[in-house]
Fold this sequence. Notes:
The protein has a domain at 178-264. It has helices spanning 2-131, 137-150, 158-175, 233-243, and strands at 179-188, 191-200, 204-209, 215-219, 224-227. 66% of the residues lie in helices and 13% in strands. It is an alpha+beta fold. Helix 1 (2-131) crosses helix 2 (137-150) and helix 2 runs antiparallel to helix 3 (158-175). The chain is rod-shaped.
Amino acid sequence: MFADITMIKSSSFRLALGVASCLALTPIAGADQLEKAQAIEGKTTQEAAQSQSRINRRADNSLAIRQEIEQIQTQISNLEIYRDHLQNLVGSQQIEAQSLRDQITEIKDTRQGIVPLMYRMLSGLEQWLANDIPLKADQRQARFEKLKAMMGRADVADSEKFRRILEAYQIERDYGSKLDAYQDTIALNGRDIQVDVLHLGRVSLVARRLDGQQYWVWSARDSQWVELDASAGEAVDQAFSVAQKQVAPSLLSLPLSANQGVKS
């Protein structure tokens, strides 16, 4: 019986020892598993961070590429606009060049036509001076001679020649609407006499001796000076005063050159 009890105690002891051993080993195994889990977690976190870093780099690269593409597209758009501008500019320049060529042709044709026209204008001016009343005759003749000499000068452009001829025509036209007085010399009976001359346009050309004792009117019909009656002197003096701005303008009564004739 004691042997049985001893065997039971021995068995109980071994069982208790085994349980104790198991209990002793359990914390060690748990610690290993925890370390492994922590290691796996750390590795996973590291790999996740690396993956996120790669994703971020790729995202940054994608954004940079997208921005570069947008810049290139903008440059392409600008280049297309500039190309269209250049095409329009070239087209406009071609039109302008053709216009200039046409103008040059017209200028050549105009120059060929303007020179004969200027000579005809000078011829007409010469005839006009020969047939007109002797109004500032020396001054007008000198102007004509200068124009005539100018035509042979190579240093004066055709445009300037034409301008001066037109200017001479303008001066001649203005004579027909002015009241003006000046001093001049007239020929009377083979003698040159210094006189005051007054003209009202071309309708009346009168002369007064410097001492105011004699008066003449130009006869367009007879192309000579005709002496006026003394009774006309007062009206002529009044006209001189108006022309010289000594008195206010007033109604004038002057003999008409077209109606005068030499007394028989």
